[in-house]
Amino acid sequence: MFKSHQFDSVCSLAAQGGVRNSNANSESYIDSNITGFLNVLECCRQYKITRLVYASSSSVYGNCNAVPFKETAVVDQPISLYAATKRANELMAHTYSHLYNIETIGLRFFTVYGPWGRPDMALFLFTKLILNDQPIKVFNDGNLSRDFTYIDDIIDGVEATLLKPSKNNQPYKLYNIGNCQPVQLLDFIKAIEKSTGKRAEKLMLPMQAGDVNQTWANVEQFKTDYDYQPSTSVETGIKAFVSWYLAYYN
Is this prediction's pTM over 0.90? Predict the structure, then answer.
Protein backbone atom coordinates (compact mmCIF):
# COMPACT_ATOMS: atom_id res chain seq x y z
CA MET A 1 0.00 0.00 0.00
CA PHE A 2 2.75 2.47 0.88
CA LYS A 3 4.62 1.69 -2.33
CA SER A 4 1.53 1.89 -4.55
CA HIS A 5 -0.17 5.00 -3.18
CA GLN A 6 2.71 7.25 -2.07
CA PHE A 7 1.05 8.62 1.06
CA ASP A 8 2.26 11.83 2.67
CA SER A 9 0.37 11.32 5.95
CA VAL A 10 -0.79 8.24 7.86
CA CYS A 11 -3.54 7.81 10.46
CA SER A 12 -3.12 4.59 12.45
CA LEU A 13 -6.10 3.73 14.67
CA ALA A 14 -5.73 -0.07 14.53
CA ALA A 15 -5.08 -1.89 17.81
CA GLN A 16 -6.26 -4.65 20.08
CA GLY A 17 -8.49 -2.75 22.49
CA GLY A 18 -9.79 -3.40 25.99
CA VAL A 19 -8.22 -3.24 29.45
CA ARG A 20 -9.62 -6.39 31.03
CA ASN A 21 -9.09 -8.59 27.98
CA SER A 22 -5.42 -7.61 27.76
CA ASN A 23 -4.64 -9.26 31.07
CA ALA A 24 -5.98 -12.59 29.81
CA ASN A 25 -4.74 -12.47 26.20
CA SER A 26 -1.35 -10.81 26.48
CA GLU A 27 0.26 -12.27 23.34
CA SER A 28 -2.38 -10.91 20.97
CA TYR A 29 -1.89 -7.43 22.45
CA ILE A 30 1.86 -7.58 21.92
CA ASP A 31 1.37 -8.83 18.35
CA SER A 32 -1.13 -6.12 17.41
CA ASN A 33 -0.14 -3.14 19.51
CA ILE A 34 3.65 -3.49 19.55
CA THR A 35 4.66 -5.46 16.45
CA GLY A 36 1.80 -4.01 14.42
CA PHE A 37 2.70 -0.45 15.37
CA LEU A 38 6.37 -1.11 14.61
CA ASN A 39 5.32 -2.15 11.09
CA VAL A 40 3.57 1.20 10.65
CA LEU A 41 6.58 3.14 11.93
CA GLU A 42 8.94 1.22 9.64
CA CYS A 43 6.76 1.92 6.60
CA CYS A 44 6.66 5.60 7.55
CA ARG A 45 10.46 5.62 7.75
CA GLN A 46 11.06 3.72 4.52
CA TYR A 47 8.55 5.70 2.45
CA LYS A 48 9.42 9.15 3.82
CA ILE A 49 6.06 9.85 5.47
CA THR A 50 6.03 13.35 6.95
CA ARG A 51 3.17 12.99 9.47
CA LEU A 52 1.86 10.05 11.51
CA VAL A 53 -1.27 10.41 13.67
CA TYR A 54 -1.92 7.43 15.95
CA ALA A 55 -4.26 6.35 18.73
CA SER A 56 -2.92 6.23 22.25
CA SER A 57 -5.19 5.98 25.30
CA SER A 58 -6.14 7.62 28.58
CA SER A 59 -5.25 4.24 30.12
CA VAL A 60 -1.59 5.33 30.19
CA TYR A 61 -2.41 7.56 33.19
CA GLY A 62 -3.25 4.57 35.40
CA ASN A 63 -4.49 5.67 38.81
CA CYS A 64 -2.97 9.12 38.54
CA ASN A 65 -4.36 11.27 41.37
CA ALA A 66 -3.70 14.66 39.77
CA VAL A 67 -6.85 15.56 37.85
CA PRO A 68 -7.63 16.63 35.25
CA PHE A 69 -4.93 14.56 33.54
CA LYS A 70 -2.27 16.59 31.72
CA GLU A 71 0.08 15.37 29.01
CA THR A 72 3.02 16.45 31.18
CA ALA A 73 2.14 13.91 33.92
CA VAL A 74 4.57 11.04 34.57
CA VAL A 75 2.97 7.91 33.08
CA ASP A 76 5.41 5.13 33.91
CA GLN A 77 3.12 3.00 36.13
CA PRO A 78 0.53 1.31 33.86
CA ILE A 79 -1.91 -1.00 35.63
CA SER A 80 -2.92 -3.10 32.61
CA LEU A 81 -1.02 -4.64 29.73
CA TYR A 82 -3.16 -2.63 27.31
CA ALA A 83 -1.97 0.59 28.96
CA ALA A 84 1.62 -0.63 28.82
CA THR A 85 1.36 -1.26 25.07
CA LYS A 86 -0.09 2.19 24.45
CA ARG A 87 2.65 3.86 26.46
CA ALA A 88 5.17 1.77 24.51
CA ASN A 89 3.67 3.14 21.28
CA GLU A 90 4.29 6.68 22.49
CA LEU A 91 7.93 5.88 23.29
CA MET A 92 8.43 4.12 19.96
CA ALA A 93 6.98 7.14 18.15
CA HIS A 94 9.33 9.42 20.04
CA THR A 95 12.30 7.36 18.88
CA TYR A 96 11.27 7.52 15.22
CA SER A 97 10.56 11.26 15.47
CA HIS A 98 14.04 11.78 16.91
CA LEU A 99 15.93 9.49 14.54
CA TYR A 100 14.08 10.06 11.27
CA ASN A 101 12.41 13.47 11.69
CA ILE A 102 8.89 12.08 11.31
CA GLU A 103 6.17 14.26 12.80
CA THR A 104 4.26 11.92 15.16
CA ILE A 105 1.04 12.96 16.88
CA GLY A 106 -0.29 10.64 19.59
CA LEU A 107 -3.91 11.12 20.67
CA ARG A 108 -4.83 9.84 24.11
CA PHE A 109 -8.49 8.87 23.61
CA PHE A 110 -10.80 9.16 26.62
CA THR A 111 -13.59 6.52 26.71
CA VAL A 112 -14.92 6.86 23.18
CA TYR A 113 -18.59 5.94 22.68
CA GLY A 114 -21.28 6.20 20.03
CA PRO A 115 -22.83 4.37 17.06
CA TRP A 116 -20.68 1.68 15.42
CA GLY A 117 -18.52 1.36 18.55
CA ARG A 118 -17.09 -1.78 20.13
CA PRO A 119 -19.82 -4.18 21.33
CA ASP A 120 -17.77 -5.07 24.42
CA MET A 121 -17.93 -1.51 25.77
CA ALA A 122 -20.19 -0.61 28.70
CA LEU A 123 -22.69 1.41 26.66
CA PHE A 124 -23.39 -1.51 24.30
CA LEU A 125 -23.59 -4.04 27.11
CA PHE A 126 -25.77 -1.89 29.36
CA THR A 127 -28.18 -0.94 26.58
CA LYS A 128 -28.62 -4.53 25.42
CA LEU A 129 -29.21 -5.87 28.94
CA ILE A 130 -31.55 -3.07 30.01
CA LEU A 131 -33.68 -3.49 26.89
CA ASN A 132 -33.87 -7.25 27.59
CA ASP A 133 -34.73 -6.81 31.29
CA GLN A 134 -31.46 -8.42 32.39
CA PRO A 135 -29.18 -7.20 35.21
CA ILE A 136 -26.12 -5.08 34.42
CA LYS A 137 -22.78 -5.45 36.20
CA VAL A 138 -21.76 -2.27 38.02
CA PHE A 139 -18.15 -2.47 39.17
CA ASN A 140 -16.73 -0.83 42.29
CA ASP A 141 -20.35 -0.32 43.40
CA GLY A 142 -20.63 2.45 40.82
CA ASN A 143 -17.89 4.57 42.40
CA LEU A 144 -16.20 5.24 39.06
CA SER A 145 -16.14 8.22 36.75
CA ARG A 146 -15.15 8.45 33.10
CA ASP A 147 -14.57 11.29 30.67
CA PHE A 148 -16.98 9.87 28.06
CA THR A 149 -16.19 11.31 24.62
CA TYR A 150 -18.67 11.08 21.75
CA ILE A 151 -17.35 9.74 18.47
CA ASP A 152 -18.09 12.93 16.50
CA ASP A 153 -15.83 14.93 18.81
CA ILE A 154 -13.10 12.31 18.40
CA ILE A 155 -13.41 12.49 14.61
CA ASP A 156 -13.12 16.29 14.69
CA GLY A 157 -9.89 16.01 16.66
CA VAL A 158 -8.38 13.33 14.43
CA GLU A 159 -9.23 15.26 11.27
CA ALA A 160 -7.72 18.43 12.71
CA THR A 161 -4.36 16.76 13.33
CA LEU A 162 -4.34 15.37 9.80
CA LEU A 163 -5.55 18.41 7.87
CA LYS A 164 -4.70 21.54 9.85
CA PRO A 165 -1.25 23.07 10.27
CA SER A 166 -0.10 22.81 13.88
CA LYS A 167 0.87 25.80 16.01
CA ASN A 168 3.45 23.50 17.62
CA ASN A 169 6.56 22.91 15.51
CA GLN A 170 7.95 20.07 17.63
CA PRO A 171 8.12 16.79 15.65
CA TYR A 172 6.85 14.69 18.60
CA LYS A 173 3.45 15.59 20.05
CA LEU A 174 0.98 14.06 22.50
CA TYR A 175 -2.55 15.30 23.16
CA ASN A 176 -5.46 14.37 25.36
CA ILE A 177 -8.69 14.12 23.38
CA GLY A 178 -11.70 14.01 25.69
CA ASN A 179 -14.90 15.77 26.67
CA CYS A 180 -13.36 17.47 29.76
CA GLN A 181 -16.43 16.54 31.82
CA PRO A 182 -16.12 13.32 33.86
CA VAL A 183 -19.41 11.56 34.52
CA GLN A 184 -20.19 9.23 37.40
CA LEU A 185 -21.00 5.70 36.26
CA LEU A 186 -24.40 5.75 37.97
CA ASP A 187 -25.29 9.01 36.17
CA PHE A 188 -24.21 7.38 32.91
CA ILE A 189 -26.62 4.51 33.61
CA LYS A 190 -29.41 6.98 34.40
CA ALA A 191 -28.94 8.57 30.98
CA ILE A 192 -29.30 5.15 29.33
CA GLU A 193 -32.45 4.49 31.39
CA LYS A 194 -33.90 7.81 30.23
CA SER A 195 -33.14 7.12 26.57
CA THR A 196 -34.46 3.54 26.63
CA GLY A 197 -37.42 4.29 28.87
CA LYS A 198 -36.56 1.33 31.08
CA ARG A 199 -35.09 0.90 34.56
CA ALA A 200 -31.81 -0.98 35.03
CA GLU A 201 -31.45 -3.87 37.43
CA LYS A 202 -27.98 -3.34 38.92
CA LEU A 203 -25.67 -6.09 40.14
CA MET A 204 -23.09 -4.31 42.31
CA LEU A 205 -19.60 -5.85 42.09
CA PRO A 206 -16.06 -5.04 43.31
CA MET A 207 -13.40 -3.31 41.23
CA GLN A 208 -12.00 -5.26 38.29
CA ALA A 209 -8.25 -5.81 37.96
CA GLY A 210 -6.71 -3.25 35.61
CA ASP A 211 -9.57 -0.75 35.89
CA VAL A 212 -8.95 2.84 37.00
CA ASN A 213 -11.07 4.90 39.40
CA GLN A 214 -11.46 7.95 37.20
CA THR A 215 -10.46 9.61 33.96
CA TRP A 216 -10.61 13.33 33.24
CA ALA A 217 -8.93 15.01 30.28
CA ASN A 218 -7.24 18.38 30.28
CA VAL A 219 -7.41 19.35 26.59
CA GLU A 220 -6.02 22.89 26.81
CA GLN A 221 -2.93 22.04 24.76
CA PHE A 222 -5.05 20.46 22.04
CA LYS A 223 -7.28 23.54 22.00
CA THR A 224 -4.24 25.81 21.70
CA ASP A 225 -2.52 23.88 18.90
CA TYR A 226 -5.52 22.69 16.85
CA ASP A 227 -8.56 24.66 18.08
CA TYR A 228 -10.14 21.46 19.41
CA GLN A 229 -13.51 21.99 21.08
CA PRO A 230 -15.69 19.03 22.17
CA SER A 231 -19.39 19.86 22.09
CA THR A 232 -21.47 16.71 22.71
CA SER A 233 -22.95 16.14 26.17
CA VAL A 234 -23.33 12.60 27.50
CA GLU A 235 -27.12 12.96 27.47
CA THR A 236 -27.10 13.95 23.79
CA GLY A 237 -24.57 11.28 22.85
CA ILE A 238 -26.39 8.44 24.62
CA LYS A 239 -29.71 9.47 23.09
CA ALA A 240 -28.12 9.35 19.62
CA PHE A 241 -26.54 5.98 20.39
CA VAL A 242 -29.75 4.38 21.67
CA SER A 243 -31.63 5.64 18.61
CA TRP A 244 -28.99 4.06 16.35
CA TYR A 245 -28.92 0.85 18.40
CA LEU A 246 -32.69 0.32 18.18
CA ALA A 247 -32.64 0.85 14.41
CA TYR A 248 -29.53 -1.24 13.74
CA TYR A 249 -30.54 -4.24 15.85
CA ASN A 250 -34.23 -3.88 14.96
Answer: yes
